[in-house]
Amino acid sequence: MKTAIVWFKTDLRLTDNEVLLKAISQSDSIVPVYCFEDAHFETTPYGFKKTGDFRAQFLMESLIDLDANLRALGSGLIILKGKPEIEIPKIVKQYRAAKVYAKREVAFEEKQLETLVQSELWKIKCELLTLSTSTLYHAEDLPFSIKDIPDVFTNFRKKIEKDSVIRVSLEKPSTIKSPEIPKLELPDLKELGLKKVKIDKRAAIAFKGGESQALKRLDYYFFKTKSISNYKDTRNGMVGADYSSKFSAWLALGCISPRHIYQELQKYESLHTANESTYWLVFELLWRDYFRFMMKKHQNKFFQKNGIKSTDSGVKKVNIEQLQNWINGKTGVDFIDANMIELKLTGFMSNRGRQNVASYLCNDLKLDWRYGAAYFEQQLIDYDVCSNWGNWSYVAGVGNDPRGNRYFNIDKQASDYDKNKSFRNLWLKD
Questions:
Q1: Max CA-CA distance within the chain?
Q2: Are residues 256 and 281 located together in one domain of the fold?
Q3: Which residues does the UniProt record annotate as the domain Photolyase/cryptochrome alpha/beta (predicted)?
Q4: Running DSSP on this structure, what letter comes out for residue 210?
Q5: 118 lies in the same domain as 8
Q6: Would you say 105 is a known binding-site residue?
Q7: Which of 103, 230, 311, 397 has the fewest CB atoms within 10 Å distance of its CB?
Q8: Dihedral sign of CA atoms 237, 241, 245, 249 in order
Q9: Residues 158 and 97 in one domain
Q10: What gap in Å lies between CA 57 and CA 123, rounded to an integer?
């Protein structure tokens, strides 16, 4: 019997999961595992938790859903906790597995861990096989090598739209052969140094983790409400569930794939309409791809003060009081404060809000942008390492912005995007 381990990470789904399908096709039996990595629940050098309460809760829900979906097909999910380079080889020995299948990483720390796990597995004659599962366009189908990817998004987009195709989304398996998998046992939040939080009733959307919820949201946003047809006009909104797709949290944990979203979008376009709005969603998914490929190209530069540019970012030493006021929505600038309170109480903020609060921290307070990025890492339900650090460095003028210093006039932004103050009134009232 050829047994393989499937190591789930941020690909918590059955549909369009090449890692899972490849393991099934090349093995007699598979053992799905997820590891709560010690490093993910530590405090970063910036003083924030790597994983905060909101995201941890969303992760737990996603794992419960994944386990239920696996069990419906004859399998289940084993939970490990600790250091993956220790825990993965242990489970390999337990099940006498010859191979471990996992999603391929691109970000610096994740890549280092992947290499470490691989070398530990080699010692016990086990192979680690990794596959790219996170992007709309497959890395192998790009019209340029990773080192030659343009550092300006528009150049990247034009070339890719002209010369590349999006692969078909893969069906979920119909059945999975596994040894008997014990009942799911998740660590509790307290064990991870976190607590269960109640999301504020003013939250734009009540996010619930898992592939089932992701598919439900996609069906609602595309087919039930047809909200996608107005996406380009409403995407800069700030109040309510439907001004934007809100797919980001499920995408971040891989509860849904960008390719599956694209395939459903094509279905929608053939049934209803293809317009600027339906294209714009693909445009946003392309940005997500771009930051992932940029991370692969520039590696740990995205986590350094001067980013991928050699110019000095001009930030001053961090002023803890100013930083705390920014975090707690006490800057005295109502538009910034409303957005930061929303983030603090819900784990979410609109795209328009994110750009403004980042610009304020970088350009008005002139604080080290990495503190902002690290706070977002802790706080956001939809935290994605590539998009988060890529976007922050962009606004800080040390990333992929060809214009350099992108300053937002906060008063103008507030009057353009919150004309009647409905967003500010919602979050600034006691």
A1: 66
A2: yes
A3: 2-136
A4: S
A5: yes
A6: no
A7: 311
A8: positive
A9: no
A10: 35
> Tell me, what CATH number does 146's domain have?
1.25.40.80
Q: Which two tokens stand for residue 82?
A: 């600790």
Q: Is 129 annotated as a binding residue?
A: no
246 is in an annotated binding site: yes
Cα angle value 175/180/185 (rounded, 5°)? 105
- Mean pLDDT (whole number) for 3-18: 98
CA distances to 174, 184, 229, 366, 404 from 67, in Å = 15, 7, 34, 45, 46
Give me the residues paired with residue 313 across strands: none
Does residue 72 sit in the same domain as residue 24? yes
Question: According to the annotation, is 140 in a ligand binding site?
Answer: no
**3 state SS of 383:** coil
Assess if residue 203 is contained within a domain.
no
Find out whether 393 is annotated in a ligand binding site.
Answer: no
Rounded alpha-carbon distances, angstroms, from residue 123 to 8, 96, 101, 127: 22, 14, 17, 10
Say whether 291 counts as a known binding-site residue. yes
Average pLDDT over every residue of 104-125: 96
Confirm or deny that 286 is annotated as ligand binding: yes
For the stretch 293-312, pLDDT in tens is: 999 999 899 999 988 886 66
- Cα 424 to Cα 375: distance, rounded to the nearest angstrom: 22
Please list the residues that pair with 308 across neighbouring strands. none
- Write down the pTM of the prediction: 0.96
244 is in an annotated binding site: yes
CA distance 250 to 28: 30
Q: Do 381 and 258 fall into the same domain?
A: no
383 is in an annotated binding site: yes
Pair of tokens at residue 191: 């064990």
- Give residue for tokens 């929608």: 268
Is there a binding annotation on residue 287? yes
Least trusted range by pLDDT, from 267-271, 401-405, 406-410: 401-405
160: containing domain:
135-164+211-294
Is 248 annotated for ligand binding?
yes
